[in-house]
Write a structure and sequence with these properties.
single chain, about 240 residues, alpha+beta, nine-stranded antiparallel β-sheet, two-stranded antiparallel ribbon, 11 strands, about 30% helix, elongated
Amino acid sequence: MISISRRSRKANDGFTLVELLIAVSLLSFATLGVIAFLRQGLKMYYMDRARTTINRDIRSFTTQIDTDAVTANYFCIYPNFTTRSSGGTDAALVDGQAGDFLVLVYTDPSQTSQGISMITRIVGYYREVTNTTNNTGPVHRFDTSVAGWSPAIPAAGVNIKSAAMYSILNTYVTGSASSYPIVTQLAQGLAAGTGQTTPTLFYNRLNRSIMVNAQVSESLTEIGASSETGNTYNFTISPRG
């Protein structure tokens, strides 16, 4: 009788409530750890992918703008896409100033007027600021043929190279800032010119070269939260046409 009673008690043995709670707690902690590890791994993966995209965009942008600049004859830099004049005159920025709108100008020496080569083509790069809080937005590009535009003799103190640009831009570059193809999705200007407080994209260096100083970013949305990663770049281009 004694041995039967012992076997019966052993057969009915089980986990206590305390033991179950401990086991569930340990399993929960382990699960949370695995989830956190996987989340961190996914975040690193997406950030690496974003950096790869950014570096690709930078290479594409620098190659394209350098190719355009090599054959350009000169350039004009403006504060932004819409600010092309100041008090009714051309608002091109001078040495030491920076802006968000670069115009590369091409002329044809075989076509002249008043001894000046006529403008036959313009290529523009400009940053459209869509987020004023972070001062970020896409960079656009346009490429427009000009029907032999003759620069007029400018007024005293006006740069002859930019004397005709206001009329050309208003004639051949129409529409809103969002009208032209995007070459870089999200950029923040870092170049601040003399007497300027808001960083922009293009810096006029001695009226001979353009310093491009910016941070290119990429938005991350795959991990359930919005975040950004970015990379800065700084390079100089000079028209040589």
